[in-house]
Every structure is written in structure tokens, then in C-alpha cells.
Amino acid sequence: MEVRTRAPGKIILSGEHAVVHGSTAVAAAIDLYTRVSFRLLPPSEGDAGSVELELKDTGLAFSWPSSRLKETFSFEAIGPPLSPTPRPCSPEHSKLIASLVEEQNIPEAKIWLRSGIHAFLYLYTSIHGFKPGKVVISSELPLGSGLGSSAAFCVSLSGALLALSDAFSIDRQTKGWLELELSELELVNKWAFEGEKIIHGKPSGIDNTVSTFGGSMIKFRSGELTHIRSSTPLRMLITNTKVGRNTKALVAGVSERVLKHPDAMAAVFRAVDSISKELSVIIESPTSDDVSIIAKEEKLEELMEMNQGLLQCMGVSHASIETVLRTTLKYKLASKLTGAGGGGCVLTLLPTLLSTKIVDKVIAELESCGFQCLKAEVGGKGLEVCFS
Ligand SMILES: Nc1ncnc2c1ncn2[C@@H]1O[C@H](COP(=O)(O)OP(=O)(O)O)[C@@H](O)[C@H]1O
Ligand SMILES: C[C@@](O)(CCOP(=O)(O)O)CC(=O)O
Ligand SMILES: [Mg+2]
Fold it and tell me: How far from each other are the two terminal CA atoms of the chain, in whole angstroms?
């Protein structure tokens, strides 16, 4: 039996980084997905089989003989890798997994894949031990660009692994895409969070939570999710600066600034918290006519600009992001970085009454700078599962 899963990426409308330090953030799923297919392989005679991983986006495939996994994890200090409940990857466990990743000779140019492979091995062996199996992963999301590819990776992978484990009492004969029960989604989310810890270092949990549960928009603070309803659909342009960066390093950079300037950074995080709270109230506020829609969108634009200013204070903007901000401002459009920054993606609010002609002009100008504009629906389903 094979299981397929898909989990969405996300945009953060306000509160990235500050959310790691306890502030409120507002985010939504987007209709770009990471997909996983997984099947357990029957062991052949005289051979314990292998755990195989194919990463379609990079054209790379990896394989670990089950016997090699067994031998590595026989190290007494960590006990058996199988775990019925989500738990963090201990430093000893992490060292053993790092040695298994090391053996794979990942090309130097793709060394950033390491953390994802590390998270894969942790989740696989925690949920299925050394059982041979094959996992194939592909994504519509640009990787390492602020749209939550790491969370979509961990959620779709945890969902697929759990769907073929004893942890789920799901009817595997049902055809088509299924949404899981709340308790099952919660379990997936917890495992995915452990995976995100390996990739982000110190994640807030917002990305895996949005990717697991979906919904039109969410407010998130200290692990707590609240669904919010937008009274008018928001149109966002996503511009990928194509400048590569790594969330873990950016999150660590902000924490360093907190150590150096604790009072100033606490004030910055408080300001972000207020912005996110106000943003969520405005998003939910009813609109009756064009005048009220324009007033609402103007307030949202101002809050996005204020949040961007505070992200600059945190040291996570980038010259490429500033170029996007300047370009969109020429058309009186407000933008902010989304995700970890340092390059990656920028959000621009496209007001409801903005003509298609202007949108096309902005996109053409941004693309002439070498950026890539993405169109994505804001809000949507979370993790889905399909058996075949
Ligand atoms: N489809 C994928 N294939 C392989 N690795 C992936 C995939 N999606 C995510 N990753 C892992 O996640 C990392 C990117 O995560 P991160 O730096 O948090 O950026 P973001 O989450 O914004 O895309 C990659 O370096 C890789 O390790
Ligand atoms: C910077 C942060 O707030 C969001 C990171 O998102 P992404 O990995 O850049 O898509 C980190 C986190 O909340 O875990
Ligand atoms: Mg990430």
C-alpha cells in the first residue's frame, strides 16, 4: 500500500521572528504544496532492505541499508529510536544521524539539504524504526525562500509516515483526498515541529501549524492558534528575490541581537505584537462599500510598512528586499518581507480596486530586476492524505 500526502506553504502577514520570542503573528496557508509518497518495502530474503529517500526537486536520491541503521542506533545512550510520542532529537541521537547523513556524500553545492535529510532520518526512524521503505518528496514551493518549505516538508512527511503506522486508526480503503481527524492532525503537527526544530534551530511552530491545519487565516502566539476570518479576500503579490538564505542562521542572528540589546529588542517585539493584534482586528472588520474597503486596505498597508521597519531593526532585511520595496512604492504599493528574510520572498498588498494593468506593470518591472513573481491564493486546506 502507498500513501500520498500534500501540505501547503504559508505567508506570514506580520510577526515573523518576533513570534519566536513570544509575540503574536498572523499567517495564512497558500495553494503551493509539498507532496510526499511513501510505501513500506517487503524485505527480500537474506537482505533486510533499505530506507530510501528521493528528493525530486534536487534530482538526488539517498539510501540507508536497514542493517546500517540498526547498527548505528544500537548505541546504548539513546535507546531504541522508535517513539510512540513526539520527542525532541537529543544531542547524542543527532550526532548519530549526522554520521548517517555524512556518509551520503551530498554535493557541496547542495549542502543546505543536510538539515532536511537529518529531519527525514529522525522522523522516519522514530515512527518506523528500521523497516525498509521508500519516500519520494517534491514541492511546488521555492526552497529556502520564506514560504515555509521546511514546514511543508516536515508536515507532509510526518503525515505520510504516521498514515502507514499503528498510530492512526484511519480507514485505508477510502479513496480520494482525506482530511484527518483533529487528534491525528495534532499528532502530525507535534512530530513536524520536532522536524522543524532540526531545520530552524528554534522554531516558533507557526509554519508547521499553518501547514497542518490550513484555514483562511490564523493568529498565532506561543503555540496557540486562533482562526480569523477575513471579511474581504486579500490579494497578495509574492516576489521571490531569489537570494538564497537559511532560516536557522537568521533566527540565530536575531537571538544574538536580543542578547546584545535586550531592552531595545523587547520593545521591538512588543511593537510587533501590537501590529499583529491590530492587523487581525482589521482583517476581520466588516466592509460595506468601496470606501470602507479602501480605508481597510490603507490601514493594512501602513501596518505592513511598520512591521517591515521593525524587521529592519531585527537585522533581517536585505538589499534585494529593499529593491522590491522601492519598486513597489513607485506604484504606491506597500510591501514587507515574509518568512525569515535575508533575501527570500516579499509580500505586496494588491488593493481590491487596483487595475490589472498596474499589477502587470509592477510585475514586469520586478521581473526586469531578475526577481520572480508568484501568484498564490491566500488561505486554503492544510494536510491531506490519499491511499492507493
Ligand atoms: N522539497 C524539499 N526537498 C528537500 N529539502 C527540503 C524540501 N523542502 C524543504 N527542505 C529543507 O528545508 C530547508 C529550507 O528551510 P528554511 O531555511 O526554513 O526555508 P523555508 O522554510 O522558508 O523554505 C532546505 O534547506 C531543506 O533542508
Ligand atoms: C522567522 C520565522 O518566524 C519564520 C520562518 O519562516 P521560513 O522558514 O523563512 O519560511 C521562524 C519561526 O517562526 O520558526
Ligand atoms: Mg522554514
Answer: 6
Q: Is the CB of 339 under 6 A from ligand 2?
A: yes
Q: What are phi and psi of 50, to 5 degrees?
A: -140, 160
Residues 188 and 49 in one domain: yes
Q: Is 35 in a helix, a strand, or coil?
A: strand
pLDDT surpasses 90 at 48: no
- State which of 123, 141, 149, 238 you would mutate to test the pocket of ligand 1, scoring each by most atoms of that ligand within 8 A of its C-beta: 149
Calpha distance 275→268 (Å, rounded) = 11
The number of the ligand nearest the C-alpha atom of 203 reads 2
The answer on 344 and 293 residing in a single domain is yes
Instruction: Give the ipTM of the model, two decimals please.
Output: 0.99
d(CA 14, CA 1): 41
Q: Whose CA is nearest to atom 20 of ligand 1?
A: 144
> What residue numbers bound the domain in which 122 lies?
2-226+380-387
What is the amino acid identity at position 378? V
The structural domain count of the chain equals 2
CA distance 342 to 241: 10
Q: Whose CA is nearest to atom 13 of ligand 1?
A: 150
- Over residues 265-320, the pLDDT tens digits come to 999 999 999 999 999 999 999 999 999 999 999 999 999 999 999 999 999 999 99
Tell me the pLDDT tens digit for each residue of 69-119.
999 988 666 667 788 899 999 999 999 999 999 999 899 999 999 999 999
Pick from 14, 24, 32, 200 the residue to mutate for probing ligand 2's pocket: most ligand atoms within 8 Å of its CB. 200
Residue nearest to atom 19 of ligand 1 (CA): 144
Residue 97 sits in the same domain as residue 244: no
CATH code, domain carrying 168? 3.30.230.10
Say whether both 218 and 265 belong to one domain.
no
CATH of the domain at 319: 3.30.70.890
Structure pTM? Answer: 0.97
Specify whether the backbone of 265 is left (phi greater than 0), alpha (psi in -120 to 50) or beta: alpha
The pLDDT, as a whole number, for residue 78 is 64
Residue 305: predicted pLDDT: 98
Task: Please check whether residues 260 and 194 belong to one and the same domain.
Answer: no
Domain match, 169 and 56 both: yes
For residue 311, give the C-alpha cell: 524587521
